[in-house]
Description:
Strands 2-14-23-13-3-12-11-10 form an eight-stranded mixed sheet, sandwiched between helices. Strands 1, 15, 19, 20, 21 and 22 form a six-stranded mixed sheet that branches. Strand 6 (110-112) and strand 7 form a beta hairpin. It is globular and about 75 Å long. The protein has a domain at 301-530: Dipeptide-binding Protein, Domain 3 (Dipeptide-binding Protein, domain 3, Roll), CATH 3.10.105. It has helices at residues 73-83, 137-149, 184-187, 198-201, 206-210, 257-265, 278-286, 317-326, 329-337, 370-379, 408-423, 435-442, 465-468, 491-502, 506-522; strands at residues 2-3, 35-38, 51-56, 88-93, 96-101, 110-112, 118-122, 162-169, 172-177, 221-226, 230-235, 248-253, 271-272, 291-296, 301-307, 383-384, 390-392, 395-396, 398-402, 427-430, 450-457, 527-530, 534-539, 542-543, 562-563. The model is unreliable at 1-41 (pLDDT under 50). The chain starts with a strand and ends with a strand. The chain is of the alpha+beta class. The protein contains 15 helices and 25 strands.
Amino acid sequence: MRRQRRGLMLLCALFSILLVAAACSSSKKSNTSASTSSGSSSSQAVPDGGELVIGAEQEPDCTDWIDQCAGSSWGTWMAGVTTLPRAYDVVLNGDKYEYKPSILLTGEAQLTTSPKQVVTYHINPQAKWSDGQPITSHDFKYTWDQIAHGTNIYDRSGYDHVESVDDSDPATAVVTFSSPYAAWKGNLFSVQFGVLPSHLLEGKDRDALMKDGYDWSGGPWTFKWEKGTSITLTPNPNYWGPKPHLTKVTFNFVTDTSAEFQAFKTGQVDAIYPQPQPDVIDQINAGLPDTNKSITDFTGNLEALWMNNAAPPLDDVKVRQAIGFIVDRDALVQRLFGSVGVNNPMQTFEENVLKDFGDTTAFAQYKKDLTKSDQLLTSAGYTKGSDGIYAKNGQKLSLTVQSTAGNKRRELTEQILQDQFKQGGIDLTVDNHKSGDLFGQILPGGNFQLAIYAQVLTAFDPTLCNLFCIKNIPSAANGNSGNNWTRTNIPEADKQYTIVDENLDDNARMTAGKAGDKALADQMGSLPLDPLPNMLLWHTKVLGPVGQNAIMGPFFNLEQWGIQH
Length: 565
């Protein structure tokens, strides 16, 4: 699952994660951080030619990046980042990330704030699509119009603040805002959605032309999607930037982490980016020959127990709060990730890389305390029965949790939660689904009570409004767009997270972010669990500056990779 922080989908002004490339690494940690690394040398000459095979844990549901179906982080990492031109990259500078103009622009975009916020992008005259047509300001205008005014849009954040895009000069896009928007570098025309080719899509059915793959590119690679099997990248011959060293990169879909890890151990794939499953962690800790690795929890990831605030009985704040005192998050996190040094739960919905914008103590009030949970449930009209389960009006307090089928770590999480809920007097059942059904239909449609999944940042800003503001609840009124799948409706959190989106002063944004977290925690909108560590493994024959990027993913600089012949 990707999280669009229009700024989102997040990672903003100060997050550092371990970027593994010899000569350039960061060991900065958060208060819960654990990191290990060993890397290939970026100073070693990278030969041209050769093919690379990478194990991919998830197949995208579609490749129309602005549609609701495009919620897959893996889809963005494999084919979005590698083919879409974008205004800004997210790069590591020392021990912090920052925005840097991509080669699509001639330099920094110009920002003015009076009388309205205006951002002016100057397009590199060499920039062109794979068919040789220039990338122009009309492509910016088309992209904005599709996101701001289209239907079934994954996230309009930021684009809905734009009043107009002046494309009268093909080399200059002038974006005027109807209201201030702080996260413009991260959200607009950048990693999440990039820029789309108007000359190929305008006046046509964009979704039909893109959702099953496309043959154009504005990046270093083009791709081909063989559904059920793989995505293959080949160099874009008309790319105006540095050309890839490799002749082909194949992402083989191996959706079971254990099978993916076995494929890596036996040499069937050269690199993997696995979810941290317990059995895989044990094998990594035991040592792997001819393997480089990067493991860190200072990431743009956050896994949570998401609560549908509009679904009974979770529409009762006392029931949600009681769950906060039933779940032993310390024991849960230690069981899942203690072997890699991650022992403390998250206390804010700001990921570790953005912790300065959140209240890192907001959810600390919720620790296992069955006396408090009993008081809350009793005051809500529940009575504990002889079987230890609470009931109200003759109906037992029973909940269902949903997650991705086949994910062993999440299945273990659900087992632990079932035991803890039972101790707290709530019956918890499990109903898992394929990721496409879960993220494409069930969650956006609000057809759940509890869910376990991770938000993965694809933008570099601390906004949480896309996840929790009322306007982002999917509905007929907004074309079923928006990421507030939990139907959270907390006016004070809404107010504060809107300030984070719209105020251009980082100090004011930090203050508002902390206040929003407190309001969200007091009403128990949902419950943050863990930072979901990142793990990247690659064979020593893979050369170049291989490493992690908390926003753009592990393949952000794939054109610089090579393989030893």
